[in-house]
From TrEMBL:
Name this polypeptide is given: Precorrin-6A synthase (Deacetylating)
Single biological process term from Gene Ontology: methylation
NCBIfam families linked: CobF (TIGR02434)
Pathway in which the depicted protein is active: Cofactor biosynthesis; adenosylcobalamin biosynthesis
Keywords: Cobalamin biosynthesis, Methyltransferase, S-adenosyl-L-methionine, Transferase
GO molecular function: precorrin-6A synthase (deacetylating) activity
Name of the encoding gene: cobF
EC number: 2.1.1.152
Keyword rRNA processing (UniProt): no
Domain spans labelled Tetrapyrrole methylase: 3-219
Amino acid sequence: MRKLYVIGIGAGDPDQVTVQAIKAMRRAEVFYVIGKGEAKRELVDVRTAILAEHLDHPYRIVEIADPPRERTVADGDYRGVVLDWHDRRAALLAEAFAAHDGVGAILVWGDPSLYDSTLRMIERVAARAPLDYEVIPGITSAQALAARHRMVLHEIGEPVHITTGRRLREEGMAPDGSTLVMLDGETSFTGVPCDDVHIWWAAYLGMPDEELIEGPLRAVEDRIIQRRTELREVKGWIMDIYLLRRIDRDY
């Protein structure tokens, strides 16, 4: 039975790779990387740099071109579009696994449990052919955001609602507690109507171009939008995350 490690490697800082992750990487002989094209080549380069730093044995890197995903969702069938994309990704991974021998590994940005499709794809592959896979947790961007802003994600005894930019636009902030927003390509915080909301925002967490902005939402949202636009133009891609919280005290 083929062995595969699904390894969380943190939010971008090579020092966030855990000892457990390094041990798993050292057991692997083939590393599968789903590439996002030249515009996001840096995401692949970070993974290869991590391997070069921590491995002292020969290994192979198999890069798989990410199949295009339909961004315009007809009739609100968002789930169907994503599932189709996952199926096509899983088919490509299955082909790659079949073509290469040895213990394999996939390096996952952040942690495989949070807004990442890798495990869903692996489940599809395992349904087609025997596959023994093990999951190694990593530092999430949510943890990195809290650490870099030196803050706690929730107030005392209150919840944290983790959602996406799309859901924030559709549903707004959670009625109580804090709202952590990921996968927001459209600066959805601009649609939040409350004037008493504070934002903690970050882009490229753990990377050399890391950017942090925090403050009352209405006071800093234009600055975030401008800086986000500038960074995206320079790098060709952006990966950001933010926490929203209603504040009942002055800053």
